[in-house]
């Protein structure tokens, strides 16, 4: 490809609404352009990356035994009503009526459509297992589209669905997909972690998220370097602490102290000169319509997904100020677990606490030397706080490491949630009709492109992994008006193409500095700079990632690139 023919309108400035590196750099480097909030054109450079990502995904999915299909984007409401999700999926689903006033939606996911296909065609155990996937567009009307391709309203996704005769076979395929996804992201040259995750609205028995490690990631994860345990903070388990030995012998007498206009944990800590971990924080939640109090150590936060799962609830929310007073008869900021009329559930972090500070249930007062078991009863101890770096691994006790990541893939063991609701059954060897057991496996294709940039960039632009770069090599003649430079650059360009490289030649009549900046901004892994030593047949090879430069004979450029690639393996 010749740069003079490439539609890659680069920019010096980032868009005003861009908050993260991928949004800024993909726009500046000419990969994407905004059409409207959450909607983007993907330009030729971006399309080349997407096609390379899709190629890797297709090769690995096909190798793993999955088969590709093309499913409709328009979904009739009847299928979603069968599964029970038409009215509960939420406002993210884009609904509309056709000319006959029939209800449809633009598919945000495809469990219903694929289950409908399989239930019509598969009747016997002999036709199973089956794993079908598609790569196509999805639509979700995000309440606040942001971060460019990270949270868009229209995006490209690979979604796969498997169907099985037994739970055991579904689990076999789940781990087959786990290994397949690991190969996919490894081939893309991305640093990632597969972590235990919450199943969310998709449902199912358990799931894993695949997170690309990046400081800008919305997801938080913890992992153990000793035993390999890894989980999102929505799922990560605390190691339940032991009750301190001889705890009751350490109890002190409760003391009421005046704390005028002191409400927040930080203020209480400073005013009473006690660390935040010696203060009890009490929060009132409404769980499926019923009020409960959740006690947690003052320096920790409730992870609401864990709270929802602990109660096996459909809906969990913080009570309003008015509800708090109605449920407890106490003022917000001074809530006390003592003599509370609603049940108190305590996070594991409360178990070791002795003689702690708590609200007095009265404006401008707190209590010192409060103890659970003596001054108030805990209905149950539950694991609901966010696990942090340095805390013990729940499996081996070694310190956990916390990082941020970007979710690019998610696999679920669905069970029979959709097959039972929609009548997707098969006849087994004994002639018995049974529901198929399902799995679900997704990869955000456009999100992978953005995540790769979040993980791989510097002050000069994008630094693409070789495997998914729009071009692998760019040949840069510093002066196209000089015959020896232009001629050698053209020879190298043709030779590299013959050797199987994906090559761009910057044949524009522009200043060398301008070309170098564009090459760095776009992020092509290798730059072949043809300059003053062209008459000698010598060029400069620059590695975009490391900045290393090598003087190389023009005939040996491809050989040197392969040598450098092999040294990274």
TrEMBL record:
<dbReference type="GO" id="GO:0006433">
    <property type="term" value="P:prolyl-tRNA aminoacylation"/>
</dbReference>
<dbReference type="InterPro" id="IPR044140">
    <property type="entry name" value="ProRS_anticodon_short"/>
</dbReference>
<dbReference type="InterPro" id="IPR002314">
    <property type="entry name" value="aa-tRNA-synt_IIb"/>
</dbReference>
<dbReference type="InterPro" id="IPR002316">
    <property type="entry name" value="Pro-tRNA-ligase_IIa"/>
</dbReference>
<dbReference type="InterPro" id="IPR033730">
    <property type="entry name" value="ProRS_core_prok"/>
</dbReference>
<feature type="domain" description="Aminoacyl-transfer RNA synthetases class-II family profile">
    <location>
        <begin position="33"/>
        <end position="465"/>
    </location>
</feature>
<keyword id="KW-0067">ATP-binding</keyword>
<comment type="function">
    <text>Catalyzes the attachment of proline to tRNA(Pro) in a two-step reaction: proline is first activated by ATP to form Pro-AMP and then transferred to the acceptor end of tRNA(Pro). As ProRS can inadvertently accommodate and process non-cognate amino acids such as alanine and cysteine, to avoid such errors it has two additional distinct editing activities against alanine. One activity is designated as 'pretransfer' editing and involves the tRNA(Pro)-independent hydrolysis of activated Ala-AMP.</text>
</comment>
<dbReference type="InterPro" id="IPR036621">
    <property type="entry name" value="Anticodon-bd_dom_sf"/>
</dbReference>
<dbReference type="InterPro" id="IPR004500">
    <property type="entry name" value="Pro-tRNA-synth_IIa_bac-type"/>
</dbReference>
<keyword id="KW-0648">Protein biosynthesis</keyword>
<dbReference type="Pfam" id="PF04073">
    <property type="entry name" value="tRNA_edit"/>
</dbReference>
<dbReference type="InterPro" id="IPR045864">
    <property type="entry name" value="aa-tRNA-synth_II/BPL/LPL"/>
</dbReference>
<dbReference type="Pfam" id="PF03129">
    <property type="entry name" value="HGTP_anticodon"/>
</dbReference>
<dbReference type="InterPro" id="IPR036754">
    <property type="entry name" value="YbaK/aa-tRNA-synt-asso_dom_sf"/>
</dbReference>
<keyword id="KW-0436">Ligase</keyword>
<dbReference type="InterPro" id="IPR007214">
    <property type="entry name" value="YbaK/aa-tRNA-synth-assoc-dom"/>
</dbReference>
<comment type="subunit">
    <text>Homodimer.</text>
</comment>
<dbReference type="InterPro" id="IPR006195">
    <property type="entry name" value="aa-tRNA-synth_II"/>
</dbReference>
<dbReference type="GO" id="GO:0002161">
    <property type="term" value="F:aminoacyl-tRNA deacylase activity"/>
</dbReference>
<keyword id="KW-0963">Cytoplasm</keyword>
<dbReference type="GO" id="GO:0005829">
    <property type="term" value="C:cytosol"/>
</dbReference>
<dbReference type="InterPro" id="IPR004154">
    <property type="entry name" value="Anticodon-bd"/>
</dbReference>
<dbReference type="Pfam" id="PF00587">
    <property type="entry name" value="tRNA-synt_2b"/>
</dbReference>
<comment type="similarity">
    <text>Belongs to the class-II aminoacyl-tRNA synthetase family. ProS type 1 subfamily.</text>
</comment>
<dbReference type="InterPro" id="IPR023717">
    <property type="entry name" value="Pro-tRNA-Synthase_IIa_type1"/>
</dbReference>
<keyword id="KW-0547">Nucleotide-binding</keyword>
<dbReference type="InterPro" id="IPR050062">
    <property type="entry name" value="Pro-tRNA_synthetase"/>
</dbReference>
<dbReference type="GO" id="GO:0004827">
    <property type="term" value="F:proline-tRNA ligase activity"/>
</dbReference>
<protein>
    <recommendedName>
        <fullName>Proline--tRNA ligase</fullName>
        <ecNumber>6.1.1.15</ecNumber>
    </recommendedName>
</protein>
<dbReference type="GO" id="GO:0005524">
    <property type="term" value="F:ATP binding"/>
</dbReference>
<keyword id="KW-0030">Aminoacyl-tRNA synthetase</keyword>
